[in-house]
Amino acid sequence: MCEDNGFILHTVVKASNVHDSQVLHELFYRVKEKVGKPSALALDAGYKTPAVAKRLIDEEVRPVLPYTRPKTKKGYFRKQDFVYDEANDCYLCPNHQVLTYSTTNRKGLREYKSNPMICQECPFLSQCTQSKNHIKVVTRHIWQGYYEEAEHLRHTEENKKIYARRKETIERVFADMKEKHGLRWTVYRGLEKVSMQAMLVCAAMNLKKLATWLWRATQGSSFFSHLGSYFHQNRVQTLSLNPILSTV
Asked: What pTM, to 2 d.p., does this model score?
């Protein structure tokens, strides 16, 4: 995770079978504790989940999430073709039939099912479902409202400007890690050793950026004296100046 100027704030190393969206909660907590809560957080599609949207909105952090393509098979109705009726807690299909609430599964998804007696006579059945019992099931996460709010914010100009900064901040950081600092592959085994390597690389990248900034500010004159005084007076305060964070 980095701030708007490209300084790395924190990194967390997990096993490859842990999804990105699960790591975000720990990473966000650590950054919030050490640096402070940001005003906005730009994320890529891997973090676009109802749980992440809920966490950020509850923390009063603006979620900046990208557009994701529908995952429906070609030739079938997409989920957005089914209209949710919040007042009656049901879905309406493209043929104006009601899908009523059935149950909530272990993944936190509320299941809405159609009436098979009506579906088997529906002219749109081949575009709706391949179910042998002619039952269409539409799911809705219990935190779907937070996800929809984040999706609404995606269309605002502020979100578009913030998200456009990702290619200049975290994407550049990630590319430099792989191409210049050997993090395309790990050379150690175990989370502890790999975490140590990642933290050392992040510290080195921050020092390189800081040195570049100070060199430009002083135009090379008395550079090392300025560098020493800067660390003594400011330490890492630069990292908390900009409230907008970005993560991969």
From this structure: 0.79
